[in-house]
Design brief:
Alkaline Phosphatase, subunit A, 2 domains, five-stranded antiparallel sheet
């Protein structure tokens, strides 16, 4: 059998809920998407619950499920995935955290969780933070690295540490920075919480008078004067997609978490200049990289973050614009990967509502196109059309078995 290729495009936060002010349409319905519509008309279309109906998933557990890994079994915290994707080699005792540069006042009240989505100078600030010493907890060292915009990763390295600690990030402006606490009462977790609390305090001391922040305040921009953390995690033990599904894979993504998950799943990372993980990502460069990777791989995971960012910003028109840009990438994949011989699937890891700015528990559309899949005859891809599609309603964990069966890589159950 010929080595059929599969491209799985995950558009982060693509799905949404209808908005009254836009004729009860979602951004996906409102957008002009001829290529997504073309893919949907000739392919399988349905609904996908990333975890299960009504469950609001984080991107970490949702993407685990989409790649066939049951989060109840394999999830060990998002921080480790972020650290792996940032190029940090994790040891078995390391505890990793998601981190944000943020803005606080003198009372440690959070004024901006993202420090104005700081872009310029974040790497310089990260070097200062990386030099912070934790003196109050013997034998604990830290590694800090900036990733995209305001985001970064923190790793605590030492003996007798635990990921069972609470978040410091209050996840809402106007609240004070939290105090990390042991969530299981263990001495290891208490020791980790103590080290984390000292780090947060020291990060503020290191950043508040930094010249870059002095300049930002002078320019009427929020100072990136503290680092706040969440999502403690340890190195996950994932069986590779090669061993599970006979997939020789590559990943094209701009966000650290997806890169880390791909590495943990045994996929090769493709470095794409312009794949920022933000609003300005280079879709043409991603398309070219996908086509090149398909020459010697039979599975390419492509991730796009921007729809989720617009959803969190409650920006309906911005999300529409991003979806229309994304549609160009879909068109390139359909034509260049050639769905007359190979397969292209499009879905989202969760719904991000432009009304609430949050993830919701709604199902997301799933589309699978290829040479021999049943045609849905859906003329316009949308959340509502997905409910009328020919694939039905599936879970995230169902996706990889369906995809591997479609491309002829599933194993026979029974004899």
């Amino acid at each position: 059998m010929a080595d059929r290729k599969l491209v799985l495009l995950i558009a982060d936060g693509l799905a949404d809920r209808p908005v009254i002010d836009y004729d009860y349409k979602t951004p996906l319905e409102y957008a002009n998407t001829p290529n997504m519509d073309r893919l949907a008309k000739g392919g399988l279309v349905g609904q996908l619950d990333p975890i299960s109906p009504g469950v609001r998933p984080g991107s970490d557990v949702a993407n685990l499920a989409l790649l066939g890994y049951d989060p109840a079994r394999f999830y060990t915290g998002r921080g480790a995935l972020e650290a792996l994707g940032a190029g940090i080699d994790l040891g078995p005792n390391d505890i990793a955290f998601r981190a944000n540069f943020a803005t606080v006042d003198d009372d440690f009240r959070v004024l901006d969780r993202r420090a104005g989505r700081i872009k310029k100078g974040a790497s310089k600030l990260a070097k200062v933070v990386d030099d912070v010493k934790i003196d109050g907890v013997h034998g604990v060292k830290l590694i800090f690295k900036a990733t995209t915009d305001h985001r970064g990763v923190l790793v605590l390295r030492g003996e007798k540490l635990s990921r069972m600690v609470s978040d410091v990030d209050p996840k809402e402006e106007g609240l004070k920075v939290g105090t990390a606490r042991a969530t299981d009462g263990s001495e290891e977790a208490k020791r980790t919480a103590q080290a984390l609390n000292e780090f947060v305090k020291r990060s503020h001391e290191a950043l508040r008078e930094h010249p870059l922040n002095t300049q930002r305040v002078s320019d009427d921009e929020p100072a990136a004067n503290i680092v706040i953390t969440r999502g403690a995690g340890t190195m996950p033990a994932l069986p590779s997609l090669k061993s599970r599904n006979d997939l020789r894979g590559a990943c094209i993504a701009g966000t650290a978490m997806i890169k880390g998950l791909a590495l943990a799943a045994g996929l090769d990372l493709v470095d794409v200049k312009g794949a920022t993980g933000g609003f300005s990502t280079d879709y043409e460069a991603k398309a070219k990289a996908t086509i090149e990777a398909a020459k010697d791989k039979n599975f390419i995971l492509v991730h796009v973050k921007a729809p989720d960012l617009a959803g969190h910003d409650k920006d309906f028109k911005g999300k529409v614009k991003i979806i229309e840009e994304l549609d160009g990438l879909v068109g390139s994949l359909i034509d260049e990967v050639d769905i007359g011989s190979n397969y292209v699937a499009l879905t989202a890891d969760h719904t991000t509502s432009v009304y609430s700015g949050e993830h919701t528990g709604d199902p997301v559309p799933i589309v699978i196109g290829g040479p021999d899949v049943p045609a849905s005859r859906v003329t316009k891809l949308s959340e509502a059309a997905a409910a009328r599609g020919n694939l039905g309603r599936i879970r995230g964990l169902d996706l990889m078995p369906i995809l591997t069966d479609v491309i002829g890589r599933s194993r026979l159950y029974g004899s």
